[in-house]
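Person: Show me a sequence?

Helper:
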Amino acid sequence: MKHMPNLKNFSKEELIDMIKLGIDIKKNPEKYCNKLKNKTMAMWFEKSSLRTRASFEAGMTQLGGHAIYLDTSTTHKKANIEDEIKCLSKYADIIIARVFEHDTIKQMQEASKVPIINALCDTYHPCQALADIMTLFETLKDPYKATIAYVGDGNNVCNSLIIASKKLGIKINVSTPQNLKPDIVPDFWIKNPVEAVKEADIVYTDTWMSMGEEDKKKEKTAKLKNYQVNKKLIGNKYFMHCLPAIRGQEVTDEVIDSKKSLVFEQAENRLHIQKAIVLKLLDVV
C-alpha cells in the first residue's frame, strides 16, 4: 500500500505512468467507467474548497464509485485523529485529506489501513502539481525541454511543482522575495521576476494570500507588488495559475483571459489526473 503525502516517494517512472494514464482517461473515459464499482472514497476537509472537492467527487462517480464528503467543522472536533482515521479506513477504500498542517497527513498515514492522498496542506499540493505537468505534456511538443518560471509567493503549490519538475528533469526558475522563498529551494531561485521569465516557456503564479493568511494581506501585498504577472512581464508565453485567482493582484485580466492562458485546462486536468492517482494507489490498473 502506498500513500501520497507529497511527490517525494514517487519515482520519475511512476509519475510519468500517472500522467500518461490521466491523459488516456481524458481521451477514453468509457474504458474506466466501472473501474471503481462498489469502491468508496472518504474526503476529509479542514479547509473549504471548490475544485478539489468537485473534481474528486465527480471523478469517483465517473469511475463507478462513491465519495463521502466530511467537513471537519461538523464532525467531532475533540476526537483523536488516529481513532477517526482507523474508523474511516474500515468504511472507505481510500481517503483524501485537505488540511492545514502536513503533520496531520503523517498522523493519518500512520493510522490508516487504506491509501491517504494529500489533497492540499500548507506545505504541499501534489495533485495540483501533477495536473499542471499533465497540462504541460498536452501543450508542448517536448515537455522535457521546457522551462517553467514560477513567480510570486513560494507556497505549497510552488513546493510541489519544484518536486515534480526536478523528478521529471524539467527546468524550473522560481522568483520570490527573499523572505517568501519556498521550503524547497530550487537550483534556479531568482529574486528578479524579469530574469526568471526571460527564457521560460510557461509562467506560473498563485494567489498571494493562501487560505488562513488573510491577516497578512497588507504585509504580503507590499512584498509581492513587483511580482504581478502582467502582459509586460509575460509577453506571449503560456500562463498557468491553480485558481482561485485574485484578478488585478497577482495576475491581470489581460493575461488570465488570453489565448495563451492554460488555467482552465489545468482545472479540468485535476479531474483526470486524480482519477489516475486513485486507480494507481488502489492498484486497479
Remarks:
- Residues 12-125+269-281 form a domain with the Rossmann fold fold (CATH 3.40.50.1370).
- DSSP finds eleven helices and nine strands in the chain.
- The first helix runs from residue 12 to 27.
- The first strand starts at residue 40 and ends at 45.
